[in-house]
Write a structure and sequence with these properties.
single chain, 397 residues, alpha+beta, Neuraminidase, four-stranded antiparallel sheet, 6 helices, 20 strands, 28% helix, elongated, binds 2-acetamido-2-deoxy-beta-D-glucopyranose, Olfactomedin-like domain-containing protein, signal, Olfac-like_dom
Length: 397
């Protein structure tokens, strides 16, 4: 009974901590730690409804710690300040109630739990989070709020393909990669050349030593990164100017099933955001859920991998923007695309409760959607058309 009441009391407490976390990205790791710690204590309370006193004591100590850590949060912004004040009030109330429970005794013995181990593991997780934050440090504070408009730039090419600019270069070149298995990149001087009628005559053709598979390739800082056709999960780094292969790597676990079930030709989708290179794929082992991997584009080493909660079923494409995966879903027959799953690698516990974001009305499907972090817009390929989507963004806070 006591345990139940205590649980009841902790839920709003936790909710308010999580609410505050949205306002304090920089403290997400701490908040996550607090959350996990509470959940672990709570779980053990369920199992162990005896000797409640010890746990009440523990809650008391812990909330004291929370109080002192909260005092150190960045609360100079008005809205954050209110949020923290609200939180402090709730903690005080919780403490009063915990004090009351502390006076209620129950005298059975409790199951032994390796408390120190749990504590250590949680601290390690918090540290890991902190490291990730340092790694993904670019000034990335925006999230998608909506899709403002669409511009169909051209209709050329195969049903599947991709087109892009290089967000890591100052030049205005446009690259066209026609088809889902091909070995020729067309390079245009700029978007005007690309839009001309005889555009292919004006293009520089770059032939790859081995063809690509799917439409998930990406161009960054003068290199094309692509999934090599005929390989399970080999990613090639190709120098477009020198026309030779610079490096290659394997992406373990990838390549067995499509990244998005509605775009079966793409097994590995690559993406560039403010943080650099990412790979997106799905695995049977994760129930067909989407897995994202941060790759160092210079060394071609895997930096970190996340199993997301986003399904690849009914997905047609996805993109990364500001550490966050946005998955685009559609109907198998092709309808209006919508973003329905969002996964922020730095705030996975709190993955934003965003409303479904619809793409501007256009019946059909996308075989590729790539975010360009320099221009903050999407380059998409839909049924042979090359499309640009302009975005509404807002502060993550
Ligand atoms: C991110 O880290 C790099 C090097 O690791 C550093 O040069 C850069 O200034 C950092 N950026 C921010 C916004 O902290
Ligand atoms: C793209 O490939 C299709 C056939 O798959 C072809 O009809 C079309 O002309 C190609 N477009 C360009 C720009 O090469
Ligand atoms: C396209 O190129 C052909 C051959 O070079 C030329 O005869 C034709 O006039 C060009 N069309 C346009 C619209 O520029
Ligand atoms: C790529 O080509 C450049 C010059 O053409 C050469 O210096 C370099 O060694 C080549 N790299 C590889 C990996 O073949």
């Amino acid at each position: 009974m006591v345990v139940l009441q205590l649980r009841f009391l902790l839920v709003p407490f936790l909710t308010s901590i999580m609410g505050a976390a949205q306002y304090m990205m920089q403290d997400a790791a701490l908040m996550n730690y607090i959350d996990r710690r509470f959940l672990s204590l709570e779980k053990r309370l369920e199992k162990c409804n005896q000797d409640i006193l010890d746990y009440v004591e523990e809650f008391r100590d812990f909330s004291q710690m929370v109080l002192s850590r909260l005092a150190g949060l960045n609360n100079y912004k008005a809205e954050v300040k209110n949020e923290v004040e609200n939180l402090l009030t709730r903690i005080e109330r919780a403490q009063r109630d915990i004090d009351y429970f502390g006076s209620v005794t129950d005298s059975n013995t409790c199951i032994e739990v390796h408390e120190d181990l749990v504590k250590q593991q949680l601290f390690e997780e918090a540290e890991e989070k902190q490291k990730l934050k340092l790694m993904l440090n670019a000034s990335c504070d925006h999230m998608l709020a909506g899709i403002k408009s669409l511009k169909i730039v051209k209709k050329t090419g195969d049903k599947h393909g991709s087109w892009m600019k290089d967000p890591g270069k100052k030049h205005t070149k446009i690259y066209l990669l026609n088809g889902s298995v091909n070995n020729v990149i067309l390079e245009f001087a700029n978007i005007m050349t690309f839009m001309e009628d005889n555009h292919t005559l004006k293009a520089r053709r770059v032939t790859l030593p081995s063809p690509w598979e799917g439409t998930g390739h990406i161009i960054y800082q003068g290199f094309l990164f692509y999934h090599r056709y005929g390989s399970l999960n080999e990613i090639i780094k190709f120098n477009i100017q020198k026309r030779n292969i610079t490096d290659q790597m394997l992406l373990p676990g990838a390549g067995r099933i499509p990244a998005y079930q509605l775009s079966p030709s793409t097994k590995i989708d690559l993406a560039i955001d403010e943080q650099g290179l990412w790979a997106i794929h799905a695995e049977p082992d994760t129930g067909g859920n989407i897995v994202i991997t941060k790759i160092n584009h210079i060394t071609m080493a895997v930096e970190h991998t996340w199993d997301t909660s986003c399904s690849s079923k009914d997905a047609e494409a996805a993109f990364m923007a500001c550490n966050t995966l946005y998955v685009v879903y559609n109907f198998p027959s092709g309808g209006t695309s919508r973003i329905q799953c969002v996964y922020d690698v730095l705030d996975a516990v709190n993955t934003y409760e965003i409303p479904v974001l619809h793409f501007p009305k256009r019946q059909g499907s996308h075989s590729t959607i790539h975010y360009n972090p320099k221009e903050k817009q999407l380059f998409a390929w839909g049924d042979g058309s090359q499309i640009i989507y302009k975005l509404h963004t807002k502060q993550k806070v």
